[in-house]
Design goal:
With 603 residues, the chain is mainly α. 45% of the residues lie in helices and 5% in strands. α5 crosses α6 and α22 crosses α23.
Length: 603
């Protein structure tokens, strides 16, 4: 696919990401503040100007910069920022941010694996829609908990789930066609209800292979929810153990000190998940429908006994209560939670919610997402501070998010120059938009979403239909832009990478062409960006006024029409107009530049 801008596009040096990033990083700000440690002399943090603080908080919470009205409000009254943050925490965009955060941290958005196939009641449903519904099921529940002001630990204890029509058909769930698209429902296959711990999407993502004995699911619990991954403990594994001898391995997990160090915690956790199937593959569903859903399915594993093929046709039977005691048949450890008794996953949910590690891990994960730092690199003092916010607010995730985006370290520009020592708790520094934030910003500014549809000749047994290139990896560019594909790329990239710049470059060009055509096709009052000019406007004063407004909308910069940045943008616009003789074409090229400029991409 061609990724270059049109050959006649003008790309002045001021567009350079590195140079612009350095300019942004060196900006001044509001008065300096200390780190707040009692009795300890710490280097002072120089705060960003309040308008830039608002821009950073808005991008963090909503994925896009403030509106012009919001910028003017904080410019007139810096105290207005707290109220704006409160409003942003109630927005639909913050709910989307919550899904993006948990989708990445729990590695749930994984379109590299084929979704459930479009067979039976789903015949004719595009695979993209099936994938979106199935992967969003636990994420919608998390969003529901936070946006309805329930305690965050309710994600582990709720006695209901959320479903849309597709998930309801896949698993045979109650669904009211007259109700909202995503609505409260309950699993009907006998599984205990325990928030996301009851989720089919979660446990079909974290599959249990033939001899895994549910340990991968236990590892997810210890890692993602407690930030204490059992499998990463520093233990000595015997070098003379024959791992091809299953009897020897099973004996070792009971007797070898290096093995026992992990398995005495891991196996009791895993035993709580035995009611869930190890996995359901798309190929198995296709095989079942190929046999008209009649006969028996014999899995390639002794973990799960044979079952009727109709359990692999919609509605799928992902939980089998009769297998809950399978751990006993395989001579594994009995269910438990770090030495505490537990019988099923509803016990597990309550035990995790009461575990102090869950609160501190939540603090780590939230700061990690907003500040673009690896979870394990969040410093201890900050974790303690944010954990206190969670506990004292009765697990209010909105209070935690507000504490983060209004924290001095989050809103600081740099350390005061006269402080020679490096601080133990430095500011987060310049942040680069995540791929999801960039796509959200493009959509909010221009209304553009980069959709394509796969040719039917490439569909195979499952046709994807229309796909959002910014939010998928099978057909799109999410991982290339610095995100994760939850299959091969498991950690985001926070720096500028060549492929990310290419994705932004092409997206900007496509979005610019789209918004210019759409804006000039309707009255100025209903346009998104080009509200001050018409297709034939060439008057310099009017063009400069439009450019100043674009700088405010795209980069949160309130500039005068004779500001040097507007001068540069006007030079680009006028050069493109002189080259093509078409004002609309000049706006396309100018917006292509602005939508990938550092003032857009960094915050």
């Amino acid at each position: 696919m061609e990724v270059d801008l049109p050959s006649d596009a003008l790309a002045p040096p001021w567009l350079g990401v590195v140079v612009s990033a350095l300019v942004l990083a060196s900006c001044g700000g509001d008065p300096a503040v200390t780190s707040g440690r009692t009795g300890v002399s710490e280097p002072e943090l120089v705060m960003l100007p309040v308008v830039d603080q608002a821009a950073r908080a808005s991008v963090a919470l909503r994925g896009h910069r403030p509106t012009l009205e919001e910028l003017d409000a904080v410019a007139e009254d810096p105290e207005a920022l707290a109220g704006l943050v409160d409003g942003w925490l109630q927005s639909e965009a913050f709910g989307r941010t919550l899904r993006d955060m948990h989708g990445e941290q729990f590695l749930l958005r994984n379109d590299m694996r084929a979704p459930y196939p479009s067979e039976g009641p789903l015949r004719g449903t595009p695979a993209w829609e099936v994938y979106l519904s199935s992967s969003e099921e636990p994420l919608k529940l998390i969003e529901h908990v936070v946006m309805n002001d329930l305690p965050y630990d309710a994600i582990l204890t709720l006695d209901y789930m959320l479903t849309d029509p597709i998930v309801a058909q896949v698993f045979g769930l109650p669904y009211d066609e007259a109700g909202p698209e995503w609505q409260v429902s309950r699993w009907t296959d006998g599984r205990p209800m325990s928030g996301i711990l009851s989720s089919s999407a979660l446990w079909n993502r974290y599959r249990s292979g033939p001899i895994n004995h549910q340990r991968r699911r236990a590892q997810f619990v210890s890692d993602a929810l407690l930030c204490d991954p059992i499998a990463e403990r520093d233990v000595v594994v015997p070098t003379d153990l024959d791992f091809a001898d299953m009897d020897a391995v099973n004996e070792a997990v009971w007797t070898e000190p290096g093995c026992v160090a992990c398995h005495q915690s891991l196996d009791p956790l895993g035993a709580l998940f035995w009611g869930f199937r190890g996995q359901i593959r798309s190929a198995e569903v296709l095989e079942a429908y190929g046999a008209d859903c009649r006969g028996m399915f014999v899995p390639q594993s002794f973990d799960v006994p044979p079952e009727p093929l109709h359990d692999l046709c919609y509605p799928l039977r992902f939980y089998r209560p009769e297998t809950e005691d399978r751990w006993w048949e395989l001579d594994l450890r009995s269910p438990g939670y770090y030495g505490q008794p537990a019988e099923r996953i509803d016990d597990l949910g309550r035990l995790i919610a009461d575990d102090p590690r869950f609160a501190s891990c939540t603090a780590r994960r939230f700061w990690s997402w907003f500040a673009h730092v690896d979870r394990d690199d969040v410093d201890h003092d900050l974790v303690v501070e944010l954990t206190r916010v969670i506990e004292e607010s009765d697990f209010d995730a909105k209070a935690l998010a507000k504490a983060i985006v209004t924290h001095p370290r989050f809103l600081a520009s740099h350390v005061a120059e006269d402080d020679g020592d490096s601080p133990d708790d430095p500011p987060v520094g310049l942040l680069r938009m995540r791929p999801s934030q960039y796509q959200d910003s493009i959509q909010e500014l221009t209304g553009f979403t980069w959709w394509i549809t796969a040719p039917e000749s490439l569909c195979g047994s499952t046709c994807w239909g229309w796909v959002d290139l910014g939010r998928t990896d099978t057909w799109g560019f999410r991982a290339l832009a610095g995100g994760v594909d939850s299959s091969f790329v498991l950690d985001p990239v926070y720096e500028t990478v060549p492929t990310g710049a290419l994705v932004e470059r092409r997206t900007a060009a496509e979005a610019a062409g789209w918004v210019v055509a759409q804006d000039f096709a309707q009255p100025a009052a209903t346009r998104r960006l080009l509200t001050l000019v018409e297709p034939d406007t060439v008057d310099e004063g009017t063009v400069r006024a439009q450019l100043a407004e674009l700088h405010a909308r795209i980069g949160a910069e309130r500039l005068s029409t004779d500001h040097e940045e507007v001068d540069r943008s006007y030079a680009l616009w006028s050069g493109a107009h002189a080259l093509h003789g078409d004002p609309a074409r000049a706006w396309e090229l100018t917006l292509t530049a602005l939508l990938q400029d550092a003032h857009m991409v960094f915050y």
